[in-house]
Write a structure and sequence with these properties.
Blueprint (H helix, E strand, L loop, with lengths): L11 E7 L11 E7 L7 E10 L2 H7 L11 E2 L5 E4 L4 E4 L2 E2 L16 E2 L11 E5 L3 E3 L6 H5 L1 H13 L8 E5 L4 H12 L3 E6 L2 H10 L3 E4 L8 E6 L6 H7 E9 L12 H6 L3 E4 L5 H13 L6 E6 L3 H10 L5 E5 L2
Parallel strand pairs: 11-12, 11-14, 12-13, 14-15, 15-16, 17-18
Antiparallel strand pairs: 1-2, 1-4, 3-5, 3-9, 3-18, 5-6, 6-10, 7-8
Helix pairs in contact: 3-4, 3-8
């Protein structure tokens, strides 16, 4: 049964879709078009989206990762801030899952899904999500800022929480321009860690220093000393450096492999140095609540590359695919 709607709508909503997938030319399947109003199942809520942030996951979807041809077209997007049916400002948690099936952590639910996989995503004027996936938006954050937090920033936050590092320890962040890496630099500094960054781009390194990085190194460069933890979202291009950079008994936290899977994995180094490898995907609803509160209390603001109206989403996708980004790209809806 569907919930009765309390707003008056036109015949459809503007949305950004994956109409088809193509591994070599992902943007060829990207379409901006009107879609029918969504139904609202029992226990779900309708959200009027005001801002939604772009992630690499959206590009991977256009390449066919996590999306089958019989599930298309699919509205893309995982991050959003907006207003619920009662007029409350909300932030959307993108993980659709059962905490009980994940032993208290919905991210560990074997059947978990992210918005835009089995369910339509956030790049639309209206969105439906389970009621538990809505969190109050802090007054200290505007919609554009809040929309940046549920994926890249939440992932960086969970990585830091699971790194085993303590205030005063040194953390190496691999990369300096993406949503996760910029979030990690800002959050790690606010948590009291010494933050080092490795990047192949001198300009991004300069901007990372402006964000608060204590030292910036070339990718693969020998460091002055080994670090307590490494945050790696790059994969093959940085894996060997991450293992060489961390101290014996330290931790390498991995949240992605944008450059591919590493080969070799270097198991000999891992067991001999007793390096702890921790995988992280997104974060729980409770962790998102903690991140929102932390950012509001510490006056932390996400790093935003550009803000575009939703109907110009293709421009944002093209910039992300080209790597011409420092921070988050956000789409807004009047």
């Amino acid at each position: 049964m569907c919930r009765p709607l309390c707003w008056t709508y036109a015949s459809g909503v503007l949305a950004v879709l994956a109409a088809r997938t193509d591994d070599t030319n992902p943007l060829s399947g990207l379409v901006v078009a009107d879609r029918p109003e969504p139904d609202v199942p029992e226990g779900w809520r309708l959200v009027r989206v005001k801002a939604a942030a772009l992630n690499h996951h959206d590009l991977w979807s256009l390449r066919g990762v996590g999306l089958r041809s019989d599930e298309l077209p699919r509205i893309l997007g995982m991050d959003a801030a907006g207003v619920d049916e009662d007029g409350n400002p909300v932030v959307v948690h993108a993980v659709i899952a059962d905490p009980d099936a994940g032993r208290g952590d919905e991210v560990n639910d074997p059947r978990r899904s992210l918005l835009s996989e089995r369910y339509d995503g956030t790049f639309a004027e209206h969105l439906v999500v389970p009621a538990r996936n809505l969190l109050p938006k802090p007054d200290a954050l505007d919609d554009v800022e809040a929309a940046c937090l549920p994926t890249a920033w939440l992932t960086a936050y969970r990585m830091l929480l699971r790194s085993g590092a303590r205030p005063g320890d040194t953390i190496l962040v691999q990369g300096a321009g993406g949503g996760v890496s910029t979030a990690a630099i800002v959050l790690a500094g606010a948590m009291g860690f010494r933050v080092w960054v490795a990047t192949r781009d001198a300009e991004r390194g300069r901007r990372a220093a402006n964000l608060g990085a204590d030292a910036v190194f070339d990718r693969g460069e020998r460091l002055p000393e080994r670090v307590d933890a490494v945050l790696d979202s790059v994969g093959a291009a940085t894996w060997g450096h991450s293992l060489r950079a961390v101290r014996p008994g330290g931790t390498v936290v991995v949240c992605g492999a944008t450059s591919g899977d590493p080969s070799p994995v270097e198991l000999n180094r891992i067991f001999y140095q007793q390096i702890r490898i921790v995988g992280v995907t997104m974060g729980s609803r409770d962790e998102l609540a903690g991140l929102l509160a932390f950012c509001a209390a510490r006056n932390i603001r996400p790093v935003i590359d550009r803000v575009l109206p939703l109907h110009q989403a293709i421009e944002g996708f093209a910039a992300l695919e080209a790597g011409d980004v420092f921070g988050k790209i956000v789409f807004t809806i009047p």
